[in-house]
Amino acid sequence: MSDSFICSICGEEHEGLITDWAYKLPDVVWEIPEEERTEKARFNDDLCQLGERYFIRCVLYVPIAGAPESFGWGAWAEVDLRTFERYLEIYDEDGSYEPKRPGTLANELRPYPGSLGAPVVIEFRDPTKRPSLHLKPDNGTLLAGEQRFGIDEGRFHEILHVIRR
Fold it and tell me: 81, exposed or middle or buried, with CB in 10 Å at 0-12, 13-18, 19+?
């Protein structure tokens, strides 16, 4: 496996291994044919609305054992209107004092079958960082376990293999 990658955002090659993977839209919006997508949904890099459904782009971190960084999943969370509107109100402010909010994972993370729709807790942060996602403590899935306890180098490489296909 190469120790460099082509960034899906800037299109340039970067040294090192990928330590994050981002989804451009919630899966339900991505599935809309491209020519109809902007008619049916309103979205930018951080927010999305599809009819009466609301989404916020967040980051779900999975620690990598022995590494200073975590693997960050740039995933979308579906939220209620109240949470969506509150996020809009504090978008340029420090939201770390805000109460945590419920949501559901709006992307299927390929190395974690069944992750789409998982209940999550959203934590707003300072305006330079996207909100963070945490699976609930009683969630017994592989993703929840790996978020709590981390992944080893072998699992990290398995994830890289899956996302690079």
Answer: exposed
